[in-house]
Amino acid sequence: MNRHHSRTIRGGVAAAMVTVALLAAGCGSSDDGHDHAAEPMDSGGPTAALTTPPPPQLPEQFSGVDQNDPEAVMVAAAQALFSYTPATDPTQAAGADRAAALLDERFYAENKAAFSVLAPITGAQWDRWASANATVTARAAVTGDNHPPDAPARISRVVAVTQTATTPAGAVLDESTVAVYMSATRLGVWRVSALTVR
Questions:
Q1: In angstroms, rounded to a whole number, what is the distance separating the alpha carbons of residues 45 and 28?
Q2: Which is more confidently placed, 149 or 55?
Q3: pLDDT tens-place string over residues 5-28
Q4: Are strands 135-142 and 154-166 parallel, antiparallel or unpaired?
Q5: Which of 19, 76, 79, 81 has the most CB atoms around its CB within 10 Å?
Q6: In which domain of life is the source organism classified (predicted)?
Q7: Is 73 in contact with 186 (CB distance < 8 Å)?
Q8: Statement: residue 3 has pLDDT above 70
């Protein structure tokens, strides 16, 4: 593996602001002599409840991912990004397509072409995996490496991703590990918004 290999793709940091307006009906004076203020709120009078909207529904493969946990989102996104079936996937970009639900939409749209050469995989290696009908499975874990200080709406981590290419019979063809420098941005829920592969 080329020690100087580096692939960096970034997306604009989308600032998401959610404003909740609570409209209350005015209670003016009434000449009917009835004391409306004495009525309980559940007797047909105005009611108001502030609720947090549920996170967006994710594809089945991400059903167990806590979208309010940025590290969990990073790990799940990395495992999808770097897992392939070369016999049917035209390029590495197929992994990005599967991970899209956990990526910031702008980041994904701006880097679609770059995803096809994200990991240091040669064309010959990809073709060999395809010929063997191999499956490339990625395992990811957040490391303890240094990272920039966390901000309320953005964090960065170094994620170790190990890719294992296995034949249908279970034979391991290749295994390699890359360091992925990932950032996630809070857009209501957390989404991956930048990454570099080294």
A1: 14
A2: 149
A3: 555 666 543 333 333 333 333 444
A4: antiparallel
A5: 81
A6: Bacteria
A7: no
A8: no
